[in-house]
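Tip: read the tokens left to right.
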């Protein structure tokens, strides 16, 4: 399987900057419509706990602005669900909860094609595990700087399904998801984008246009497909 390359012009033609009337929730709503669309965002490990804006001083990546990232990823065309995980949350247990939440939405009539998982770093690992558990539904998945662990032999059994987008930073240790793409033989599409900000993992700590713009364009283009 070959990674698809997406051009900047394609994104420019699709992206909408009109984000008023957006909805951001901590969990899926009880009442839904069959036409509703949902995006789940899973944050990185550093945010686990009680502080929504923790600071990484060890690597110099600065503030992880979880509230700002949520706001930037929200859109009037879908409901964004972004739960603040507790400290030391087990990633596999949380992936199982994501799996349950998605299945409950589908049972209520929401199309699986209108559900997307987005995750950064630890959140990307969680999203990939959830995608693996949801192989029969083929929801869409976006992996942000998450293939450091997913590319290791320790987790070589994890596969993703449906339409998949990988975004990574050139200066980061977490690089291409080519290995994940190679073993995920039943995806509907697998595209990858490399950004170049020089900020390593910290590029995803804040809502930078370099990754937010293409991610939102891709999500909206693949909803319902």
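Filled-in amino acids:
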């Amino acid at each position: 399987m070959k990674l698809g390359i997406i051009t900047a012009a394609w994104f420019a033609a699709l992206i909408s900057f009109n984000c008023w009337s957006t909805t951001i929730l901590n969990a899926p709503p009880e009442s839904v419509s069959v036409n509703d669309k949902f995006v789940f965002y899973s944050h990185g490990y550093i945010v686990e706990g009680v502080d929504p804006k923790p600071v990484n001083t060890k690597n110099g990546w600065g503030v992880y602005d979880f509230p700002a990232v949520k706001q930037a990823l929200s859109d009037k065309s879908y409901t964004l669900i972004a739960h603040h995980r507790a400290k030391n949350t087990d990633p596999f247990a949380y992936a199982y909860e994501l799996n349950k939440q998605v299945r409950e939405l589908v049972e209520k009539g929401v199309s699986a094609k209108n559900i997307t998982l987005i995750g950064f770093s630890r959140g990307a690992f969680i999203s990939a595990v959830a995608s693996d558990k949801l192989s029969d539904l083929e929801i869409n998945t976006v992996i942000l700087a998450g293939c450091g662990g997913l590319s290791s032999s320790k987790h070589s059994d994890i596969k993703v399904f449906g339409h998949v987008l990988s975004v990574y930073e050139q200066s980061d240790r977490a690089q291409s998801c080519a290995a994940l793409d190679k073993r995920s033989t039943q995806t509907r599409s697998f595209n990858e984008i490399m950004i170049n900000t020089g900020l390593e993992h910290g590029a995803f700590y804040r809502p930078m246009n370099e990754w937010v713009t293409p991610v939102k364009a891709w999500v909206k283009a693949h909803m319902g497909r």
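The two ends are 20 Å apart (CA to CA). The domain at 36-222 is CATH 3.40.50.1820 (Rossmann fold).
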